[in-house]
């Protein structure tokens, strides 16, 4: 079983079409990984599915880096 | 057949143009879910599809109600798959001179004809973006471009649809989703059969082709837009009006 961090990074790499080694914890989706606004919406959708959770829009807007995504999932794991 | 296995959702499919669209898509191999405002309407859609040897069914939907929209979308996903094709066809008229128009005549037409496009399109986009393929087709009207006295509410809603299609086409083009509108002129349906002979002859004089259109002639354009060969058309409004308005 992969850790949450590994699973988040794998989804980010798949969704944004970047190499897994580029997906560092501090990487910003938009500034470092080249995501546009629609990419970030799709990324949140993919995280919701992977972790079987619903991320409210106002929370989703605050998830802008890989670490923030990991933190969110960690804080909301069932 | 070009739409083989794709799920198509057609609102307002119990009669007229919507019914013709449902059958045209089904004839291309799509699994069609047609919606109606009543259970009887939904049952009749299912019956007609099955009588034609087509796949699909009818479902009851109130396009003004977000809860009804999510309920139907969940049902479609569990019984078939997420829709790859959405045809926003449901619409009503409540004609009146603006000076006499009631708030509910305005609100009902805007919510049913335009609010529905917002709700339904939003509901299908998740599936379409994941699939990297989708077709959203809005049934507008010639009056969106031409205007028509007594229909300020209807014309506003229809013109709104066309603007919506252009904006959304830009938003989701990178995901292989096209968003277009089809603008019918006067089509031989219950809506136009309600006109008297005088209104009819005045109307025909404005149509270079000298006749009303058939619902099937709208459906053929929708079926084309839904298919693979139309993949490079997005944000467009296709007029199908016998030449009565050339924009």
UniProtKB/TrEMBL annotation, chain A:
<dbReference type="InterPro" id="IPR009081">
    <property type="entry name" value="PP-bd_ACP"/>
</dbReference>
<feature type="domain" description="Carrier">
    <location>
        <begin position="2"/>
        <end position="77"/>
    </location>
</feature>
<dbReference type="Pfam" id="PF00550">
    <property type="entry name" value="PP-binding"/>
</dbReference>
<dbReference type="GO" id="GO:0000036">
    <property type="term" value="F:acyl carrier activity"/>
</dbReference>
<dbReference type="GO" id="GO:0036104">
    <property type="term" value="P:Kdo2-lipid A biosynthetic process"/>
</dbReference>
<keyword id="KW-0275">Fatty acid biosynthesis</keyword>
<keyword id="KW-0963">Cytoplasm</keyword>
<comment type="function">
    <text>Carrier of the growing fatty acid chain in fatty acid biosynthesis.</text>
</comment>
<keyword id="KW-0597">Phosphoprotein</keyword>
<comment type="pathway">
    <text>Glycolipid biosynthesis; KDO(2)-lipid A biosynthesis.</text>
</comment>
<dbReference type="InterPro" id="IPR006162">
    <property type="entry name" value="Ppantetheine_attach_site"/>
</dbReference>
<keyword id="KW-0276">Fatty acid metabolism</keyword>
<keyword id="KW-0443">Lipid metabolism</keyword>
<dbReference type="GO" id="GO:0000035">
    <property type="term" value="F:acyl binding"/>
</dbReference>
<dbReference type="GO" id="GO:0009245">
    <property type="term" value="P:lipid A biosynthetic process"/>
</dbReference>
<feature type="modified residue" description="O-(pantetheine 4'-phosphoryl)serine">
    <location>
        <position position="37"/>
    </location>
</feature>
<dbReference type="InterPro" id="IPR036736">
    <property type="entry name" value="ACP-like_sf"/>
</dbReference>
<dbReference type="InterPro" id="IPR003231">
    <property type="entry name" value="ACP"/>
</dbReference>
<comment type="similarity">
    <text>Belongs to the acyl carrier protein (ACP) family.</text>
</comment>
<dbReference type="GO" id="GO:0016020">
    <property type="term" value="C:membrane"/>
</dbReference>
<comment type="pathway">
    <text>Lipid metabolism; fatty acid biosynthesis.</text>
</comment>
<protein>
    <recommendedName>
        <fullName>Acyl carrier protein</fullName>
    </recommendedName>
</protein>
<dbReference type="GO" id="GO:0005829">
    <property type="term" value="C:cytosol"/>
</dbReference>
<keyword id="KW-0444">Lipid biosynthesis</keyword>
<keyword id="KW-0596">Phosphopantetheine</keyword>
């Amino acid at each position: 079983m992969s850790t949450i961090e590994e699973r988040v990074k794998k989804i980010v790499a798949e969704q944004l079409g970047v190499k897994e080694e580029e997906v560092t914890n501090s990487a910003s989706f938009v500034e470092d990984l080249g995501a546009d606004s629609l990419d970030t919406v799709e990324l949140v959708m993919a995280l919701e599915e992977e972790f079987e959770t619903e991320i409210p829009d106002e929370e989703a807007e605050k998830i802008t880096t890989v670490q923030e995504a990991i933190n969110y999932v960690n804080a909301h794991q069932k | 057949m070009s739409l083989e296995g794709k799920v198509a959702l057609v609102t307002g499919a119990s009669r007229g143009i919507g019914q013709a669209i449902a059958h045209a898509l089904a004839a291309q191999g799509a699994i069609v879910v047609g919606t109606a405002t009543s259970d009887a309407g939904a049952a009749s859609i299912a019956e007609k599809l099955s009588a034609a040897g087509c796949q699909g069914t009818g479902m009851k939907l109130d396009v003004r109600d977000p809860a009804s929209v999510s309920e139907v979308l969940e049902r479609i996903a569990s019984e078939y798959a997420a829709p790859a094709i959405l045809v926003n066809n449901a619409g009503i008229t409540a004609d009146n001179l603006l000076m006499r128009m009631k708030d509910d005549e305005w609100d009902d037409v805007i919510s049913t004809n335009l609010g529905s496009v917002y709700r339904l399109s939003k509901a299908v986009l998740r599936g379409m973006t994941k699939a990297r393929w989708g077709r959203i087709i809005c049934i507008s009207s010639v009056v969106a471009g031409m205007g028509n006295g007594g229909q300020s509410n209807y014309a506003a809603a229809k013109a709104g649809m066309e603007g919506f299609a252009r904006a959304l086409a830009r938003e989701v083009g990178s995901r292989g989703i096209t968003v277009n509108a089809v603008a019918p002129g006067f089509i031989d349906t219950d809506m136009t059969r309600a006109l008297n002979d005088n209104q009819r002859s005045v109307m025909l004089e404005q149509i270079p082709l000298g006749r009303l259109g058939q619902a099937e002639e709208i459906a053929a354009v929708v079926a084309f837009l839904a298919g693979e060969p139309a993949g490079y058309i997005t944000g467009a409004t296709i007029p199908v009006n016998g030449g009565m308005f050339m924009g």
